Amino acid sequence: MNRRQILRGLVAAALFASLPAFAAIDVAGVKFDDTTTVAGQPLKLNGAGLRTKFVFKVYAAGLYLTEKKTSVAEVLAVPGPRRVAITMLRDVPSEDFGKAFTEGLNANTSKEERNKILPQIMKFGEIFAQTPTLKKGDQLTLDWTPNEGTQCYLNGKKIGEMMPDQAFYNAVLRIWLGDKPVDSSLKPALLGEK
Prior knowledge:
Helix content is 38%, strand content 33%. With 194 residues, the chain is of the alpha+beta class. It has a single domain (21-190), classed as Chalcone isomerase (3-Layer(bba) Sandwich), CATH 3.50.70. It has a seven-stranded antiparallel sheet with strand order 3-4-5-6-9-10-11. Strands 1-2 form a two-stranded antiparallel sheet. A two-stranded antiparallel sheet has the order 7-8. Helix 3 (94-108) crosses helix 6 (166-177). The protein is globular.
């Protein structure tokens, strides 16, 4: 190798190293950044995937955690803030979305668990009552912040009240990650399986 080739290699390496690392994952045209921030803390994209019903693409979802986890137990136990980011891929009446939420929650929690978080389930249901339709392109975000609670956002704007119990957030996560997930192909995608 001559000096010119070595110099070219060093210049190319320096240019490559200076490029920003935008490792976004694309799910049905929706880009999920590799990192995000919740409550001032950086989170990593644990996984992202597509929610389908029959043959229809309903939404793309991404799960952000403080550190990557591959099992449901680890995800539910991970400390710090968390985020579920959902981008709608079709119009869905909020009544249908709320019904699917309730069915997913009921399928993956016991009656005792639901009774403990019933006030928060009711508040969450009120959120859907405020929005008649989730439209294609809408972004729904569910953030968990320790010592504060769960806050929902629609297109970046807060909707509904803060729901304080972590058991509620974990119950919501189990809609996608529980033993009976709403979409069996979305669960492994959110757990970062390729």
